[in-house]
Amino acid sequence: MSKKLIAITDDDNLITTLLKDYLDSIENYKVLLTASNGLDLIEKLNASDILPDILLLDLKMKEMDGVETTEYLKNHFPTIKIIIISSHYQSSFLGFMFKTGASAFVPKGISPVVLKQVIDKVYDSGVYFMEDQIESVREQISSKAPKPELGDDTDLSEREMEVLKLICMQKTAKEIGETLFITTRTVEGHRNNLFTKTGAKNIAGLVIFAIKHNVIDVNNLVL
User: Fold this and answer.
1) What pTM was estimated for this model as a whole?
2) Are 203 and 125 in contact, with CB atoms under 8 Å apart?
3) Which residues belong to any copy of the HTH luxR-type domain (predicted)?
């Protein structure tokens, strides 16, 4: 089984060291690199032949903070799934951070066991929401959400709607394929079409789109 490659970016060296030691002790996990801020991270990514699967990213850092780093990575390193883990966690930031490109947003006080669950869920399905986050995101987008007016270029097919709903249930491409009796490659094709039609940058963006346009009932989401 291939290892899950992880990067850590935090300006607190003690936090970085403790996280690295903990994650490296987990079977099938490997901390590929650590950085003290966004600029340091980008420099190391550009110099590396291998990219991490997951990035644990702090928000408040000098030189280049977590928001700027997330925006940059989603444009230049879109395969990296970003988990914001910050002492500056606020539910009011959720909608913005998920829309910007984060796959999960958790407080630094999170337990190591839960952090592993978050990493595994993001690695497998691309997004993780805590129990109290779905309603917060829904409230943040509902007041500004326009009535859906999808033109021909953005109309979702019946199959794309099915795939989108299963993505919101945090199903992997393999699980979606098994549910719909289609190949994993076909699922990935539908998912790419969804990105194009909705303008979402990642799986979290697709979930927000689905909530915003009433594709799924927020109460039916699996956390």
Assistant:
1) 0.70
2) yes
3) 149-214
